[in-house]
Amino acid sequence: MAQKVALVTGGNRGIGFEVCSQLAQRGFTVMLGSRNLEKGQQAAAQLSRENLQVEAVQLDVSSQENVEQAAQTIEQRYQRPDVLVNNAAILYDTWQRAANADLQVVHEALETNLCGAWRMCQAFLPLMRRNHYGRIVNVSSEAGSLAGMGSGEPAYRVSKVGLNALTRMLADEVRGSGILVNAICPGWVATEMGGAGGRPVREGAAGIVWAATLPDNGPNGGFFRDEKPLPW
Ligand code: NAP
To answer: How far apart are CA 132 and CA 122, in angstroms?
Structure first.
C-alpha cells in the first residue's frame, strides 16, 4: 500500500513541527504547511536530514487561494490527503478581557483559528470522501471548553469554542464515510505561544499523532487530551 500522506498547518515551528516529525517517523509522507515558504523549507530540510519524507508547502490558512492551491498540489502529487492536522493558530490574548476586548483582534483570531481550519476542511474533505478515508485533527485547547469557561484570553477562547463546534458538526456530517474528525488539546506546551514552563513539544504532539492515526473503529467527534476525553 502507498505511504499515507499528511498535511500539517503551521508546521514550521512549535507543536506543528513536532507533529510533522512524529508522523514522518511513522512512515507518513508529510506536507509541512508554512505561511512563509522559506521558513517551511528550512524546517522541512531539518527533518529531511534525518531521512524523513517531508516537503514544505506555502500555506497561509487565512488565504482561500493558498488553501485551494495546497489541496490541488496534494491531489496532483498524491491523489489524496489521508490526514489533515489543523494546527495553525494565533493570538493567545492574555492581555484582554471580554468586556473590553478589541473586536478587531477577536476577528483576526476567528479568521485564522476557526475559519482557517474550516477552509482547510472544506478543501480537503471532498478528496478524503473520494478516497473513503481521512483523519482530521483540529488542534484545540481546554481554553475552549465551555464546561470550564472562565475569564481571560477572549479572542483565543472563542475561536477554540468555534473550532470545537466545527469538529462536532463535521464529525456528524462524515459519519460512516471512513473519515474521523476530532478535537485535541495538546496541554500546556513550551512553545512561542505557550511560553516557558510548559511540557515538551514531544508530549504535546503525541496526542495529536494518536488522533491522526486512529484505526477505522476509532472515535469520531470527540475532544481529547493525552488520548482521554475532555469535557466540551
Ligand atoms: P506557535 O509556537 O505559536 O506556532 C504557531 C504556528 O502557527 C506557527 O507555525 C505559525 O506560523 C502558524 N500560523 C499562524 N498563523 C498562520 C496562518 N494564518 N497560516 C498558517 N500558519 C499560521 O504555537 P503552538 O504552541 O505550537 O500551537 C500549536 C497549536 O496548539 C495551536 O492551535 C494552539 O492553539 C494549540 N495549543 C497550544 C498550547 C500551548 O501551550 N502551546 C496549548 C493548547 C493549545 P509563523 O511561524 O509564520 O508565525
So the answer is: 16
